[in-house]
Amino acid sequence: MIMKKTFSMWSQSIRRFFSKRSLTLGAFSREWIRERSDEGKIKVSTLSNYQRIIERYLLPELGDLRLDAVTGEVVQNFVKSLEKKALKTSTIQGIIGRLSSIMERAVETGLIDKNPCGHIVIQKKRQTTTGKILTIEDQKTLAHWLSAHEHNLSLAIQLGLFAGMRIGEIAALQWKDIDLKNGFIHVRRNVQRVKNPEMGQRKTINQIGTPKSQKAFRSIPITSILMKSLQCYEKNGLKQEAFVIAKKGGSAYDVRTIQRYFKKTIFTLKLDNYRFHDLRHTFATRAKESGMDIQIISEILGHSETSVTMNIYLHITDHHKKQEMVLLDKLNSTIYGKAA
């Protein structure tokens, strides 16, 4: 009841100050995001993402248009312009999803008659593998260096390489999330950078929240290499509430600090120009090469669908192709006999 009353007051306020002819999508979008914020039901990180979509995509192209001028044809042309920017299908769907929510609210307030996003067509693109994986030699070089340089930022890299964790999950990891006795890492939190409202939206801050999806809540078995490293740190008697990747004072490292440390490490080792996220790709690919079931790999990575794992994270290497061809050779030998 309170919610309906608040919305009703907001609707009346909007109609009082604006008319159908004067209200632009930009002005209404800002009111929409402010109302979402006042409700207090949406995570700050999600709200920050909505704000980014509005400012980066909607306002530049549609912001100056009157609400009643945003027709289905206008929205479809907007989609085409987004497709020309080579954005992912999921990104375009997210942008149009936010626009649809805004326009639906405009319908509810009586400012427009119909939501123009109802029959918009978004061409689906086949998801392709992005990023790259470390070569076997580069992976060996990195792993040996990490084991010889004990530092919790080195441990952060190991968590990416040997557990396939996202960098935000690594930054938010606490010792209470690690079960050394049973050999599991429990992913329960994630760090995201969100805009700081106190700094006029110009600067960002770290915020610890829940993982990005329900599937991202998961348990990851600890490999023997990772177990050895974790046990070294655990012996220091750290508190359960302490962050695993923490400064001397106990506060968590910024995600960007972890990224800079990784970049400095691969530069020191004279490796290829890998990104931290490539560690996750490497983990997935090595897991597949070892014969691990795709469903298990997808569960460990926290993907909502195995198609994401297969199409984006698994890289087919020459080494893996050769391994598989050996199996075919063995089968051929049983059918045709050994080659003369």
From TrEMBL:
Domain of life where this protein originates: Bacteria
Name the GO terms of the biological process aspect: DNA integration; DNA recombination
Q: Which GO terms describe its molecular function?
A: DNA binding
| Keywords attached to this entry | DNA integration, DNA recombination, DNA-binding
Hey, which family's this protein in?
Belongs to the 'phage' integrase family.
Name the PANTHER family for this protein. PROPHAGE INTEGRASE, PROPHAGE INTEGRASE INTS-RELATED
Protein name per its UniProtKB record: Site-specific integrase
Q: Which organism is it from?
A: Eubacterium maltosivorans
